Amino acid sequence: MAGTTIKLTECPRDAMQGLHNFVPTDVKAAYINLLLQVGFDTIDFGSFVSPKAIPQMRDTAEVLSKLNLDSTQSKLLAIIANYRGAVDACVHEEINYLGYPFSISETFQMRNTNSSIADAFDTVKQVRELCESKGKELLVYLSMGFGNPYGDEWNMDIVSQWTERLISEGINIIALSDTIGIAKPDQIKAIYTQLSDSFPNTEFGVHLHSTPTTWHEKVEAAYQSGCKRFDGALKGYGGCPMAADDLTGNIATENLIAYLSQQNALTELNYRRLQDALNYSTSVFNV
After folding, report:
1. Which residue in 28, 31, 106, 168 has a CA-CA distance of 20 to 30 Å to 18?
2. Largest alpha-carbon pair distance within the chain?
3. Helices 185-198 and 215-224: crossing angle, nearest 10°?
4. Does residue 200 contact residue 234 with C-beta atoms inside 8 Å?
């Protein structure tokens, strides 16, 4: 597995969204502009959600207007939580992907998007049709993909059944999300292998959360299972503010890069711009 097979998504949106202090729009844009020069496949840059729910992302459209997209190959992804957000995102031609968090935990789906699983599935169908008409692609995050702490029923059959239903509705990219950082390496291998074998024409990625001491085993398990799409955030900032108060963080992108580089599995990145972004991150996260 080498060359162009691995796709890295850098997630400044995920890293910033839970910060209590508002990051100035110009600071957000400057940071993302540095990330756009690194060579990531995709930048998860913002979200079109209610400012009451995620106040940090209320300036996503303004941030987008300040991005320099002339000399980057990176694609842009925006998170949406309902059909209205999808309509707002589709106004912007610069956006390539819309990301929707679909949970197989009824409790978490209500907590995250204020809708039932059944209603969320209807939203997926409506948004996919909208994306098709607007030249976008819908990426679905299968949140609570490795279990949940809320007492809702969870097993591999439920994961497979919902995955099959999503694929039957034309979803081509699914990110298996360890929303609360509980996945174990053997579980990652088992779930990823079963889904990728059962649905070979679907692109599966992983959006993992971890403690600083468990990232390596999780990334290795996904990579050894054939995963070619990984999400990360520089320095491991962030997580899901709807999941818990005490959060495990995102997988640190610099760790992800180090591991994948050892496997000769990365295309060429601009490491000078990567270091510039790492240096600038202190201006973003120490506000």
Report:
1. 106
2. 48
3. 30
4. no
CA–CA dist 55, 153 (Å, integer): 32
Task: Report the mean per-residue pLDDT for the chain.
Answer: 91
Q: Which of 12, 18, 60 lies closest to 36 in space, CA to CA? A: 12
The mean pLDDT of 172-184, rounded to a whole number, is: 90
Range of the domain at 87: 3-285
Q: Which residues, including other chains, have CB under 8 Å from residue 279's CB and lie 6 or more apart?
A: none
Number of domains in the chain: 1
| Dist CA 150 CA 148 (whole Å) | 6
CATH code, 140? 3.20.20.70
Give the pTM: 0.93
**pLDDT beyond 70 at 240:** no
Identify the pLDDT of residue 150: 78
* β strands within the chain, DSSP E: 7-10, 42-48, 75-80, 97-103, 137-143, 173-178, 203-210, 229-232, 249-250
